[in-house]
Amino acid sequence: MANTVKDAILRGRKTVETVVEESRKKVEDVVEGGLDTVETVVEAGLNTVDAVVVKGRRTVESAVSLGRRTVESAILGRSTMQAAVLHGREDVRIEQVPIPKAAAGELIVNVGAALTCGTDLKVFRRGYHARMIVPPALFGHELAGTVVEAGEGVVDFAPGDRVVALNSAPCGKCYFCLHDQENLCDDLLFNNGAYAEFIRIPERIVAKNTIRVPENVPLEHAALTEPLACAVHGFEDSQPRKGDVVAVIGGGPLGLMILHVAALAGYETIALVRHDGQADAARQLGAAHVVQGTSIRKAIQETRALTPNDRGVDIAIEAVGVPEAWQEAVELVRKGGTVNFFGGCARNTHVTLDTNRIHYSDITLRATFHHTPAICRRALALIASGRFQASAFITGRAHLYELNRVFEKLMNRADESEIKTAIVP
Ligand SMILES: [Zn+2]
Ligand SMILES: [Zn+2]
Fold first, then answer.
1. For residue 262, how far is its CA from the centre of ligand 1 (angstroms)?
2. Hey, which of 137, 192, 221, 368 would disulfide with 237, CB 3.0 to 4.6 Å?
3. Cα 279 to Cα 186, 256, 349, distances in angstroms
4. Distance from the CA of 228 to the center of ligand 1, in angstroms?
5. How many A from CA of 24 to the centre of ligand 2?
6. For residue 84, how far is the Cα from the chain centroid?
7. For the residues 358-376, what does the mean pLDDT come to?
8. Residues in Cβ contact with 147 at an 8 Å cutoff, skipping those fewer than 6 apart
């Protein structure tokens, strides 16, 4: 056993962490079993292992998650990293894959935190994503981390910079990009692979959608930029006017974010949620009212009753992504109100709408998809402002090798107060 750590590191085939994990031994044990090994490791330049032992930290694993330097030094002499690879339905494996190298214009980022997301859960369940991911593929898209390599020609970023790299970037040339609708770009470039030690950021995302993280912002908070950008976009796209009452259907991460964004902007909000945990979170995030229950009929009545003469809310934003909730949203608004179908439903689903109600009540129907580079910057600024309760959205932390368990838990809704889990490699 004593030689394993040294050999593994020198051959670069395994991370120190895997070795420790596999052997179920602490560094302390390894040291006791063979002082020579650690000495040799120290000589090989990985003196952080030594420092860790001296300082009494228990495992290399905790050291890695505690100190960026350790990770950086660990990369020396290593050619592979641990990463989550999606192979199909409910089949994600943590594998050793080559550490990416930065080509011209690209960055390699050491992932500080990658957040679980409803989209990833959908992908885990279905085994693919039509636009984003075809297995076998690296997986995960909400991340922030530290640049470890900058490709030729990159001038805006250098190793050591803390950045959030978005999951996509528009082309800037197509009809939609030229009409201020970059979220609808015909050639949106997606990037996946956040559930890994390192991730390659393609040139276009480096140029358009990689943002420096202010010093006061923890990386796991910065990783919320992507979903928050979607939420900010959805809210702004609903064109709220001063004094509007905004109802948000859905207590998932995006529903709660939209609700929080609306509350922070000073609007009276109504949260329509299912579970107790979601109701608590909605209240904490500024919901003026919470309507909870499973009956859509009742929820509509209760929501309307919160408005003068039951007239309905000014804006209803649907953030569940099922046809029933889309129809519910239409029933919540007043004459002249606005509905935003924010939640994407499964393919080939349809809704039935009361044409008379839409027409004679002058209802505006909108739908908002994705984000734009400008909105992403505003989202990170909101996180950095300290007004946005970032920590309320991160309800768990897990190591990369626990990813399967985390997704299984999310699928079974084992813990209804769970919003997002930060996956730390
Ligand atoms: Zn996401
Ligand atoms: Zn475009």
1. 20
2. 368
3. 38, 10, 28
4. 9
5. 50
6. 15
7. 97
8. 107, 108, 109, 110, 157, 158, 159, 160, 161, 162, 163
- The pLDDT of 381-392, averaged and rounded, is 97
176 Cα–ligand 2 center, Å: 6
CA of 117 to the centre of ligand 1 (A): 5
Helices (H), 107-243: 118-126, 203-208, 219-222, 225-237
Angle (CA) 235-257-347 rounded to 5° is 75
pLDDT at 178: 98
Tokens of 138: 């690296």
DSSP for 374-425, written as a single string: HHHHHHHHHHHTS-S-HHHHEEEEEEGGGHHHHHHHHHTT--TT--EEEEE-
Q: Which of 131, 139, 13 is nearest to 87 (CA)?
A: 139
pLDDT range class, residue 16, cuts 50, 70, 90: low
DSSP conformation class of 214: P
Residue 222 C-alpha to ligand 1 middle, in angstroms? 13
The strand order across the sheet containing 313-318 reads 289-292, 268-273, 245-249, 313-318, 333-341, 364-366
Counting Cα atoms < 13 Å in the Cβ hemisphere of 43 gives: 7
Longest Cα–Cα distance in the chain: 83
Per the CB < 8 A criterion, the answer to whether 107 and 165 are in contact is yes
Q: Could you give the CA distance from residue 371 to residue 203 in angstroms, rounded to a whole number? A: 19
C-alpha of residue 181 to centroid of ligand 2, in Å? 8
